[in-house]
Write a structure and sequence with these properties.
Chain lengths: ~750, ~300
């Protein structure tokens, strides 16, 4: 044997390390570190005894914190700045103990079910407290209007000028009408009860879906907690809006499909049958959500074909086909301009996003409201942290979630049967892949037009985000052997994620605030409601009204009036309101829309609009550099044919019905001079705002032709010329002015 | 009675009870207690059993029952729209029939499977968690506190009046276009005393002093439109200056050079009679050309 040189062993070690760290092996190591093909045992709680555990005590704590929220609203309405601080403190008292208990591994299933529902219901009640006797969100009034129509006409598909597509998808309004008609309660009361039930239902369905997919109530509970952080959960999916009920039907359909995946034979067939009514109700309730349902079910079916058993794939495909069939049937039954409505949302958003990517459109200012008010720095920090923590959770949990085993894979399976990280759990595959929607939704929110689409996507994307982050947390961060300290840190991180989601879905402020103009829910108060009710009581229902964004809602619901809108009447009257002088175009607009009444809210002078406009979305941004002047809003005082029929010191209603009369412009009725009193002869004229008398102008003599007998005779009727241009003609002496409508005589 | 038969009987009995309450004992809270199961739970529960599609687990079954019930209500609403009208008797009949029908089908199905001996494996149920008495007390207290939070916010909202105001209006009387109603309603903090002036063509025709209104009270007066003389009114002569120079109007254009007939109401607060508090006037309610829109022509 040859003698070995010194350092040979050292060189061999280095050689071994270099071989080990080849690119392929490095990549494999990284993937393994990220959980590719990892084991999936030990996710379930070892606690065998089912009980409510800490849930009743935590419910008590949450209820006490709700009193704090109510106190925060009271302080805020009284003008105190401590209201907001008390709000966040109370919210922390609700969220932190619940999230810690959910993170803790040794908690039984029953308790987890209690915990997620306590949290979901508490967040709902927090949203109700600032406005418990009236609807708050803009969208709620749109659907209330449709509900009113159903209750009055006892039929569906009546027109709703505020949201034309709403009557075509009346699922929510049907259930509400049933409750109103059976109980005699008001629409608002029934809506609060129904949406509260929908909140508990959605929380429970989300938990069951995650539990069924991960086969772990621990993961299910954590995933539900993360799911609540989506930017629609706190406010939008707790509103009286058609997507709220549709989303519950979607979740029920997904749960049934997930149960189908682990059922066999007759049980599977029966589940497919029972999904039919739910999917029909989904098609009747909301357009986009029903399409999302088809997409999700279709994808799961495809995943089941590829990675799972084919019979499950066929069953899920059947459910998807039924969903698609019902969408098509309902669209043909209901009619409605859903294509235009949906096309506008998608087309506008995507167009603006593409322009942003190509550099032709600037990004919107982050953390700044539409009225230009920057968000408080604390909110920004939490929002950024929340996104960062979600991103970290996605990295840690992605492959672990993708490789969750299905029913066919034994628990202790190794890395066999893994293809690109996927095992045989079709739903785990689809939900994990859907988490890619999260960065896409963040990117879309960089543009003003894409914000709406990005925001709406969040509710669907977080079905994946919740699962991925929860699997990452339970497999890596906490583990069943975790210490209380580590659990506390993870629960704090999850709480930050949740609060970040709440911040992104906050209305104008977290608590009730005093009146603020042009701020949706913060602009709705008893005086405005009383004015709308006055119109119904004294003018009757169905009168053609126009007003600003908030008062349109009140008039359309409390007043049951017919609101003039672009969609139904071809144009908006916002410019009529802003113009300092009532012009020809303004008169033409009122004629074209046949508006009967204008409600002017003088309080608009106080503030800039929070949502970017006062009257309609087409307002020129220059108009928002300062609020409108009362002088401009009250210009209708100067119009002779207009009545000012209502005044409460803050709001004025004008009757502009006379302006609807079509009158030819630039015509005057000729009057026989001999019948006129000479004093009324048209030597007077108006020019440059001044009325003048010109004795040199031709006309009948003033004195000598005067017949005293003519003084008592009525003169011929005059046309009141509104909007005609100033003109002078020596032949006909037809002199009219464009804005005063002062009648002029014309001599032959 | 076997457990499955018993539960179906309970469902049917509950449906009967709910229908009976809604038909014969109207009262909001009781109606709500009866309507809630009928809308939110019973039809779905019965249909799940009729199909034999109960998932394993009591919680899963309850959740799907609620979702299915809501779906059934939506479907019934759509069918009622085409079949007749959406109203209370139709809801009661439809939901009752569906629930009873589903109970009957599930009973038949259960009896048939027993008769054929093909007993299906009962869905596995986890050991039920029983609530201890202190848990029940804690939950009851939590519900009470939550209700108190909501009640206090309701109270606050109902009694928080940021705006105190008085409404004044002038509108045609319904079904009597020649009549006008002038109305005044107080939403001030306390009792207020007002003076009301009624003007026709800027001439005072009637006046009321010391109209006292408490918050929420309404005062109205009705008058009839009987014509107002010649229109347009006579032009008042303009002042002439020196010969050759243009003259300027020395009067209000609107009054001096013609006006259309209208009625105005002005309101003053008795404690500050120098300031017009509220001011309204009617639109001329006659047509000046052939496009009358149902209004009588102006007669001058």
């Amino acid at each position: 044997m040859e003698p070995r040189l010194p350092g040979y062993a050292h060189a061999q070690t280095i050689r071994a390390v270099v071989v080990r760290l080849s690119p392929a092996r490095t990549f494999a190591l990284v993937l393994r570190g990220l959980g590719y093909g990892s084991h999936h045992d030990g996710l379930e709680c070892a606690e065998p005894v089912e009980s409510a555990g800490w849930a009743p005590r935590l419910a008590l704590v949450s209820a006490g914190a709700l009193l704090g929220i109510a106190a925060a609203s009271a302080l805020s309405l009284a003008g105190s700045k401590h209201g907001v601080a008390l709000f966040w403190l109370s919210l922390a008292v609700i969220i932190l103990p619940l999230s810690f208990r959910m993170v803790w591994p040794r908690v039984n299933r029953t308790e987890r079910i209690w915990l997620v529902n306590i949290l979901g219901l508490s967040l709902y009640l927090i949203r109700i407290i600032p406005s418990p006797v009236a609807f708050y969100d803009y969208d709620e009034y749109l659907h209330w209007s449709t509900t009113i129509d159903i209750l009055e006409h006892h039929h569906l598909f009546t027109a709703n000028p505020l949201l034309p597509v709403s009557p075509s998808y009346p699922g929510l309004e049907i259930v509400t009408s049933a409750l109103v008609q059976l109980t005699g309660l008001s629409v608002h009361q029934c809506a609060v009860i129904l949406v509260g039930l929908l909140r508990i239902l959605s929380t429970s369905l989300v938990f069951l879906i995650f539990e069924a997919v991960s086969a772990s109530s621990w993961t299910g509970g954590l995933a539900t907690l993360v799911y609540m952080a989506n930017s629609n959960f706190y406010s939008f999916l707790a509103a009286f809006s058609y997507e709220t009920i549709a989303f519950d039907f979607l979740l029920a359909g997904v749960l049934i499909a997930a149960l189908v995946a682990r059922s066999t034979g007759n049980g599977r067939r029966r589940l497919v049958c029972i999904s039919a009514p739910i999917l029909f109700a989904l098609a009747v309730s909301h357009h986009l959500t029903s399409w999302a349902g088809v997409l999700i079910l279709g994808s799961a079916s495809a995943a089941a074909f590829v990675r799972s058993d084919r019979s499950a794939g066929w069953a899920i495909a059947m459910i998807a086909a039924v969903a698609f069939l019902f969408i098509s049937v309902w669209k043909s039954v209901s009619g409605g301009g859903v294509n235009e409505y949906v096309g506008e949302i998608f087309g506008g958003s995507l167009n603006e996003f593409v322009n942003f990517l190509t550099g032709t459109h600037a990004a919107r200012a982050l953390f700044v409201s539409e009225s230009g008010v920057p968000q408080w720095v604390g909110y920004r920090i939490v929002a950024v942290l929340s996104v960062a923590l979600v991103a970290a959770g996605l990295v840690v949990g992605f492959f672990r979630s993708l490789g969750l085993p299905g029913a066919a894979t034994p628990r202790q399976a190794g890395r066999s049967n893994v293809l690109l990280g996927m095992r045989d759990n079709a739903w785990a595959i689809i939900l994990t892949l859907s988490s890619f929607g999260f960065p896409l939704s963040i990117a879309l929110r960089l543009t003003s037009g894409g914000w709406e689409l990005g925001n709406r996507m969040s509710a669907f994307a977080f079905l994946g985000v919740g699962l991925v982050v929860a699997v990452g947390a339970t497999k890596v961060l906490v583990t069943p052997q975790a210490s209380p300290l580590r659990a506390a840190v993870v629960s704090l991180c999850l709480s930050i994620i949740l609060v970040g989601g709440i911040i992104s879905d906050l209305p104008a402020g977290p608590v009730a605030v005093p009146y603020r103009a042009a701020a949706d829910g913060s602009s709705i108060e008893p005086m405005g409601i009383a004015t709308a009710q006055w119109t119904r009581d004294w003018l009757g229902q169905g009168r053609r009204f126009y007003s600003d964004r908030v008062n349109k809602l009140l008039l359309g619901t409390y007043g049951v009036q017919r609101i003039v809108t672009l969609e139904h009447d071809g144009e908006e009257l916002g410019q009529v309101m802003f113009d300092p002088v009532f012009s020809v175009d303004d008169r033409r607009s009122i004629q074209n829309t046949a508006a009967n009444f204008l409600l002017i809210d003088l309080r608009l002078q106080r503030d800039l609009p929070i949502f970017g406009y006062y009257f309609d979305t087409a307002e020129v941004p220059e108009l928002h550099k300062s609020p409108p002047l009362s002088l401009d809003l009250l210009k209708f005082d100067e119009l002779l044919r207009v009545g000012r029929i209502y005044d409460n010191g803050y709001e004025v209603i004008y009757d502009v019905g006379n302006l609807v009369e079509s009158a030819p412009l630039n015509t005057v009725q000729l009057i026989d001079n001999t019948k006129l009193n000479a004093l009324e002869e048209g030597r007077t004229y108006k020019e440059g705002g001044q009325v003048s008398f010109d004795a040199a102008l031709p006309g009948p003599p003033v004195a000598k032709d005067r017949d005293p007998a003519n003084d008592a005779r009525p003169i011929q009727p005059m046309r009141i010329e509104m909007g005609a241009e100033t003109r002078r003609s020596l032949d006909r002496r037809a002199v009219v002015n464009e804005d005063t409508g002062v009648p002029r005589h014309a001599a032959k | 009675m076997p457990p499955s038969d018993r539960s179906i009987a309970v469902c049917a009995g509950a449906t009967v009870l709910c229908l009976a309450i809604l038909l014969w004992a109207p009262g909001s809270l009781l109606d709500l207690a009866a309507a809630a199961p009928l809308v939110f739970y019973l039809p779905g529960w019965a249909l799940l059993r009729a199909f034999g599609a109960e998932p394993g687990g009591r919680f899963e079954s309850a959740v799907l029952s609620v979702a299915l019930s809501l779906a059934i209500v939506v479907i019934v609403g759509v069918l009622l729209n085409f079949a007749g009208s959406i109203d209370t008797p139709e809801w009661l009949a439809s939901l009752g029939l569906i629930t009873f029908g589903a109970c009957a089908v599930s009973l038949v199905r259960v009896r048939r499977t027993k008769a054929t001996g093909l007993l299906e494996a009962a869905p596995s149920r986890a050991r039920s968690a029983e609530l201890r008495s202190r848990d029940i007390q804690a939950i009851a207290l939590a519900v009470g506190l939550g209700a108190a939070a909501i009640a206090s916010s309701v109270f606050l909202r109902l009694h928080f009046h940021e705006f105190r105001y008085t409404q004044l209006w002038i509108v045609p009387q319904p079904n009597a276009p020649d009549n006008f109603v002038v109305g005044l309603r107080s939403a001030e903090a306390g009792e207020e005393s007002y003076a009301v002036d009624l003007l026709v063509d800027r001439r005072l025709v009637q006046s009321w002093q010391d109209v006292s209104l408490k918050p929420g009270q309404i005062w109205t007066t009705t008058f009839r439109w009987v014509g107002f003389g010649n229109y347009p009114r006579t032009v008042r002569p303009l002042k002439e200056t020196e010969k050759g120079q243009a003259t300027k109007a020395a009067i209000s254009e609107r009054v001096g050079l013609g006006a259309v007939p209208r009625v105005e109401a002005l309101v003053y607060r008795s404690k500050d009679p120098s300031v017009v508090y509220r001011h309204v006037w009617s639109a001329p309610d006659c047509a000046t050309d052939e496009n009358a829109h149902g209004r009588p022509p102006c007669e001058f």
